[in-house]
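Standup notes
- HV: blocked on the assembly model, inputs below
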Amino acid sequence: MPQSSAARSERRAERSLGALSSLVLVLITAMCLFVLLKAWPSFSHNGPMWFGWGGNVDDQLAAIFNSPANPAKWDYTIRTWPILYATALLTIVSVAIGIVVSTLAAVFIVEFAPPSVKRVVSPVVRLLAAVPSVIYGLIGILVLVPFVGNHLIGDGRKNSVTFVVQLSGASLGVAVVILTLMITPIMIAIIADALRAVPNGWKEGALALGANRWRVMWTVVVRSARPAIIAAAVIAAARAIGEGIMLAMVSGSVGFAPNPLDGITFVFEPLRPYAATIVDNAEGLSVKPFGQTIYAMAAVLLFASLMLSLGGTLAKRPLRKYGVRL
Amino acid sequence: MNSPTPLPPIKRIDPSRAPKVVDPRHDTLGAADAIAAAVAPGSSNRVERMRIDDLSIAYGTKPAVRNVTLPVREGEVLALIGPSGCGKTTLLRSLNRLTELTDTAVATGSITLNGDDIHALEATDLRRRVSMVFQQPNPFPMSIFDNVAYAIREQAARRPSKSALAPLVREALEDAGLWDEVGDNLDHPALRLSGGQQQRLCIARALASKPEVLLMDEPCSALDPKSTEIIEELITRLREKVAIVIVTHNLQQAHRVGDNVAFMYLGELVEYGTVEQVFNAPRAERTQNYVGGVFG
């Protein structure tokens, strides 16, 4: 009977797809468990102070790397506050700038750009979203870092902090600029898609009530695309948090917490987030306690991205009540 | 396997039933003069809100409305009827300049609101005074309150407080006959309402800015019979407050709610008159055919 054979092959396809997706779930869970297990000694030795401050985090990493051979005497002491701070600072600042810039850009592309501009800009934005981050890093280290180091930071400024940290040009400012540049295209693409999907009836309805185009855009179109803006911010934040190579290149890679009280100098101070720390220290992984410390940083990143997607879902929930499409 | 069933024979249109389309300016019934007299200024003692004068609209090279002249009077419901694609919706949308949203639309002739050319007004100001309800209910994804308050907030120079808005919102919802149903739940999302309630919310939203003319583009075509009945009663009631122009392809509806009826065909105004005259004693031959249900 041909019909039952079709039904059987459908069932088979269903089952194999189900198995495949369960396999992915199992793999991800296994990976999380593996990382946590590897990271545990570092967390258990430091307790909550793992996230605390005290001492120089780079010196602490070096001490861990140079631990004695006897496992009983392994050094685990680390206070990662400067790295945590750097990760949060870079992510929050660049996502915040990114939301504003990408929403404005998406509004322009969707609603106000002449058709000829639209035709060019939309594919270019998608292309930019796919540029590998290492290329951004390269441009940063070859162009932006020397420019900032040679022209924007005067000797006076360099001397003022010479006993604390060296200002080479690789800095918070450059890292934020390039990180924002890197995450904005994907945000523009997501938000523009959402703006395009807003029903024409809503726009026409608002225009027919005497709102001008600009107001219609803000009060109806962008408003109803808020879930997409949140989704874009979550995706961008995940990308920013996990960005290692580019930030290792342009952030200065110093376990230093830039101090906002330093005024303008703050922008020129170097830093290093978790992901860049992992990239920078990949060679040391064979030293057991050092490897476990690095795994602990990976565990923090994993947890952060998990929280991000959870937070994104929660943030969208109150919007659903008003029938905003998700 | 089924044995192949014979196809039904192709039905040919009986030539005697084919619509007789005659230009009103050349028709043998002599309707053109009578209609011209009916649309002329001063043919009624009611105040004229809007006047459409020799209006033609084309999308690119494709004409949609040809040389239409019509009055819109206070205290009356003007029903625009005609088959699909006859230009009635285009005509309606030109009254608050929504046709301008289509880049290719070109209009000649004039439309006035209380004697002022509508193109001399700010589009936003015009659209507050001539507001519109669409075919598909389109409440915004906000609360009921925010939907009704939308136009008031948009026209205010400073953002009005919620307590200042509340009586205006209530009045608009009462006018639209929705207050009894939603008065206690103003902060509920508008998109949770039923289709008929959504459409009445859209009417309330359009009334909130106290317009002089209310345009309705087939407001019941997406609704069930019960909601349609409620909205038709509403239209009959609202006519005292605001001049209404309603586009409908439902002749019974035009008959029920209209005071004056304009019949359009292929972009031209074929017939204009009171509802009794158009339905019981149509002057033009095409109107006779249409209201007799021969085509359309």
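- HV (later): unblocked. Residues 211 and 219 of chain A are 9 Å apart (CA to CA). Chain A has one domain: 81-320.
- Next: hand off to the docking folks.
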